[in-house]
Amino acid sequence: MQPEERLQIGLGSHITSIDVSVIDTNSEALGVSRLQLMENAGRSVAEELAKRTKRGSRIAVLAGPGGNGGDGLAAARHLAYMGYSVDVVLLAKPSEIRSPEARAMYEAVELMDTTIGLQVARNPRDIDLHGYDVVVDALLGTGLKGAPRSPYAEAIDAINNADALKIAVDVPSGLNADTGEAPGPCVKADVTVTFHKPKPGLLKRPDLVGELVVASIGAPPEAEIYVGPGDVLYRVPRRSWRTHKGQAGRVLVVGGSEDFIGAPIISALAAQRAGVDLVYIAAPSKVITAASKHPVLIPVELKDAPWLSPDHVDTILRVAERVDSIVIGMGLGLNRDTQEAVKELLARIPKDKPVVLDADALKIVSDNRELIRRNMVLTPHEVEFHKVFGVKPAPVEELPARIRDAARQARLHGNVTIILKGPIDVITDGVRARLNKTGAPAMSAGGTGDALAGITGALLAKGLEPFDAACIAAYINGAAGALAYKEYGESMNAMDLIGYIHVVLNGPVKVAKEALVYRRLPVKRTAIGVWNTL
Ligand SMILES: NC(=O)C1=CN([C@@H]2O[C@H](COP(=O)(O)OP(=O)(O)OC[C@H]3O[C@@H](n4cnc5c(N)ncnc54)[C@H](O)[C@@H]3O)[C@@H](O)[C@H]2O)[C@@H](O)CC1
Ligand SMILES: [K+]
C-alpha cells in the first residue's frame, strides 16, 4: 500500500499547537469540558509515573501558571492519593493563574494541606530539588512563546541538574512543540507524557523528549472528525491594527445570466460577511443592475451579451490578477457560449489562484475534468457529484462508503478539495477527510449553496488552504443556516442565512450548540485514524 493511498479521517497523525486548541474547543462544544480534559491529563501523568516509580517515593511537581501547570496540579492530587510524598512548587503567584480550569486545580491542591507540600517560589533561588526521586515538569507546554524567561529559565536548569527521574507534562518545558526548536534552556526529560496525539516538535527532538507516551485525555474523536467552533476560532485569521485594505482578502465572483440574477449576488454578499476586504462581482448587465443595490460589491459589467461569453474572458482575467480567489458558477446557465467561456477561463487562470467551482460550473467541467486541479474547491450536492464524476456517492447513512467515494474522486482529480453537501457534509482532498453536521432542514431553500461557495471563496482569499477553507466554510454556512432556521423556521431563505454569518464568525463558541439542529443522525460508524483502502 502506497502511503498516498491512505486516507486520514480527522486532523492527522500529529497535531500542532493550533490543532490542540481546536480540539479542546470542539471537545467542549461536544460536552467534554476543558476541566475534564485537564483532569484526565493529570491522571494520565500520575499513572505513567506510577508505572515507573515505587509508592512512597518523593515527587516534586514544578507548576507554571498556564494549562500545563494545571495538568501538573491535577497529577499532584492523584499522586498524593496513590501514596506518594508530593511537593508542589508553583513558579507564579496564585493570582497569575488565569484559566478557570488551572485555578480549580490549584484551589484543590491548596486545601490538601495534610498530603501535599505547597511552595510558591517566585524567586528561583528558592527552588531546591535535592532528595526527590521524581521531578514532574509542568512549567510550560504548548503555550510557550520564545525562550523561557525568569524564573522558568532557572527552574528548567534546576530540573536538569536534579538527580531524579524527569517526567515532562505534554512537552519538555522550553521546547517549541510545533517546530522542535529550543531557543533557550529546555528540560531534558526521561519521559514525556503528551496528550491527544504527538506534536511535530516532539518527534524531532528525542534528545529532549526521552520516552514519548501519548495519552488519551477523553476528547471525543468527533472533536477532530467534525469541523467545530474551534476551527472557526483558531484557524480563520483576524485583522489587526496593522492590516491594510485588501490584506484580509479580495474575492471575485463570476456568475449570473439573464435568467438567474440573484445567485452570484448571494455568493458575493456571503463572501463579504465572511470577512474579506473587497468583493468583485463579474456578471452580465442585468445582474450588475441588481447588484448595484449593494454598494459593498464592486461591479465588473460583462457587456454585449445576456450571458457569460468567450469575449468576456480577458476582462475577467484582468480582475482575477487583483484578487486572491475566484468563485465561479452560480446562475451562469448552460448556454454554449458560457460553457466555452468557463472552460477557457479555467484553462487560463494562473494555477496558483484558488478557485471555487459551484452550480453550473460543475456541470460545465463534467466533460472536461482535466480542468479540475489541486487548488480548487468543488461544492457538489449528491446529484451534481454524480453529474461531475459519473458515479453516484453512497447515501449519507452509509457514511464510511460515502467518505470513500468522495475521497476517491478527489484523489483521481489531482487532490482537488470536494465538499459533498448533504445532511452531513463530507469534505476531502483525497488524503484527508472531515465532516460537517451544522445546518438545518430548511437549507434546501434556494441560494444556501451560493452562500457556501461565497464563504469558501472568502476563506481561500484570507489565505486558508483549500481543505481548511472548505471545512470551515461548510461549518459557518451550516451554523448560520441553523441560526436562521431557529428564527424563521420553514420561511427562512438564503439572505436570512447571510444575516447570521457574522454571529458565527465572531462568536463561534457561543452559538455552537444552536448550530447543531440534529444531535445524532442514523449513520454507520466512522472511525478516526488512517483508512488504508480507497
Ligand atoms: N487547553 C486545554 O483545554 C488543555 C490544555 N492542556 C495543557 O495546557 C497546556 C497549554 O496551556 P496554556 O495554553 O495555558 O499554555 P502553557 O501552560 O504552556 O503556558 C502558558 C503560560 O506560560 C507563559 N509563557 C509563555 N511563554 C513564556 C516564556 N517564553 N517565558 C515565560 N513564560 C512564558 C504564558 O504567559 C502563560 O502564562 C498544554 O501543553 C497542556 O499541558 C491540557 O490540560 C489539556 C486541555
Ligand atoms: K512541560
TrEMBL record:
Binding locations of AMP: 449
PROSITE patterns: YJEF_C_3, YJEF_N
Boundaries of every YjeF N-terminal domain copy: 20-225
Binding site residues for (6S)-NADPHX: 67-71, 141-147, 152, 170, 263, 331, 381, 450
Residue ranges constituting the YjeF C-terminal domain according to the UniProt record: 228-508
Cofactor: how and how many bound: Binds 1 potassium ion per subunit.
Assigned keywords, A-Z: ATP-binding, Isomerase, Lyase, Metal-binding, Multifunctional enzyme, NAD, NADP, Nucleotide-binding, Potassium
Nuclease is among the record's keywords: no
EC number, UniProt record: 4.2.1.136, 5.1.99.6
Cofactor: Mg(2+); K(+)
Signal peptide range: none
Cross-referenced HAMAP family: NADHX_dehydratase (MF_01965), NADHX_epimerase (MF_01966)
UniProt subunit comment: Homotetramer.
Family note: In the C-terminal section; belongs to the NnrD/CARKD family. Belongs to the NnrE/AIBP family.
This protein's name: Bifunctional NAD(P)H-hydrate repair enzyme
Organism: Pyrodictium abyssi
Gene: nnrD
